[in-house]
């Protein structure tokens, strides 16, 4: 057991020494991983939220009719009657600005209580339920033409726009990410290659005294893994802070449309863990490539 502990400690020490010894090559490799994982983190955050909002939109068969500010109670009642008389309308429910804000506070936290009274940017809303999902477009168009209506939104229209944007993001994001992954693996493999070449005499002596192949390989594998792990630190910080900022600042606009982003917390924990695993895998892969090409054992 003591022998295994000493061996592990030696491998770890050797991997750290190699990182320091390679200097700017190590910095370049870590930087490549950092840029790659930053893009991966932003890309994943966007895609997961797009998917979540898409499902919300697809399941939403209601039309949200926003009432112009300054509309009197009598005018609201008249508007409600007109909405109820429309063909294909099953039910009309009223929600005040205050109630809409309470929904935002419930979803995004107490900090949004500051938007009370005249500071509340939301609108009074009539939620119109249709008899069939296919009727929402027709009802929304008719509702927009009514007096005292600021806007009328429905899931189908938002879904088309969202799917179009998401398709472009996926296409460009995946292509650019794959390109950066190759760059990161290339730089890491070259960094490990330099380490192997600088330690040729030491490796030769280790072979002569009977060192196993796995014993020789482990320090290089660990060096690659450390490179990947170091490269994930900045992306995790940037993505976590950035997502928290976007989540807070988009709360009002998202809630006014009836949707919400994925809550931080467990989502960011899983995203951070995914980026860390990808970083380690990238580093290990770069090491394996170098060892196969330059460590003929």
Automatic annotation (TrEMBL):
The gene is ftsX. InterPro entries: ABC3_permease_C (IPR003838), FtsX (IPR004513), FtsX_ECD (IPR040690), FtsX_firmicutes-type (IPR058204). It holds the Pfam family FtsX_ECD. It comes from Latilactobacillus fuchuensis. GO terms for biological process: cell division. It is found in: Cell membrane. GO terms for cellular component: plasma membrane. This is Cell division protein FtsX. It is a multi-pass membrane protein. Keywords: Cell cycle, Cell division, Cell membrane, Membrane, Transmembrane, Transmembrane helix. Belongs to the ABC-4 integral membrane protein family. FtsX subfamily.
